[in-house]
Design a protein that fits this description.
alpha/beta, TIM Barrel, five-stranded parallel sheet, two-stranded parallel sheet, 7 strands, 13% strand
Length: 184
């Protein structure tokens, strides 16, 4: 499914990167991103596929998973992929104080040293983003694969991507158990 944030959302969050369309670059890159890992059952398979096609990706990791599976996290780094902070505990921004929200990312930063960040569920307040964007590049996505959904088939998941992908797209995928059936 194509995710185009309404213009007012972009005005509320001017520092967020949603895609890389119309950049000065003459590249036709598509940016693959994987959230919620690392996971010892899924991440190695994802890494094999990326290596097979000589592709690089950005993994937005959970601090608790990096703490639990440091060897899988090291595999991501050793293969030359980028990493981003996806919080420590997959915290939702709505209904949480700014200080508590930022604290969760700060705790994750003890395990993931990066200047990239993606809010879990893409749910956060303008104040939370303002605080975090002072230290991080906040990266969202313009294509949501829905690989996490039990309601769609692997084919539908692929169609969610291929139907809308274009040069500069940021594709949101997951390297977690819930996405395993749609990416393997």
């Amino acid at each position: 499914m194509r995710f185009r944030p309404p213009k007012f959302i972009k005005r509320l969050y001017p520092s967020i990167i949603w895609n890389f369309y119309n950049t000065d670059s003459e590249t036709s890159n598509v940016y693959l991103t994987f959230d919620d890992g690392p996971n010892p059952e899924i991440t190695p398979w994802v890494l094999q596929q990326l290596e097979k096609y000589n592709a690089k990706a950005t993994f937005f990791c959970l601090g608790k998973n990096v703490e639990q599976y440091p060897e899988v996290y090291k595999m991501i780094l050793q293969q030359g992929h980028s990493v981003g902070n996806h919080s420590y505990s997959h915290i939702k921004g709505f209904g949480v104080s700014v200080s508590r929200y930022v604290e969760d990312f700060d705790f994750a930063e003890e395990f993931i040293q990066t200047n990239l960040l993606r809010p879990p569920y893409a749910r956060c307040t303008p104040r939370q983003i303002k605080m975090l964007s002072e230290r991080f590049h906040v990266i969202m996505m313009d294509i949501v694969s829905r690989d996490y959904s039990n309601a769609i088939s692997p084919r539908h998941c692929l169609q969610n991507i291929t139907k809308y992908v274009q040069a500069g797209s940021i594709v949101g995928l997951h390297d977690s158990k819930k996405s395993g059936k749609n990416i393997k």
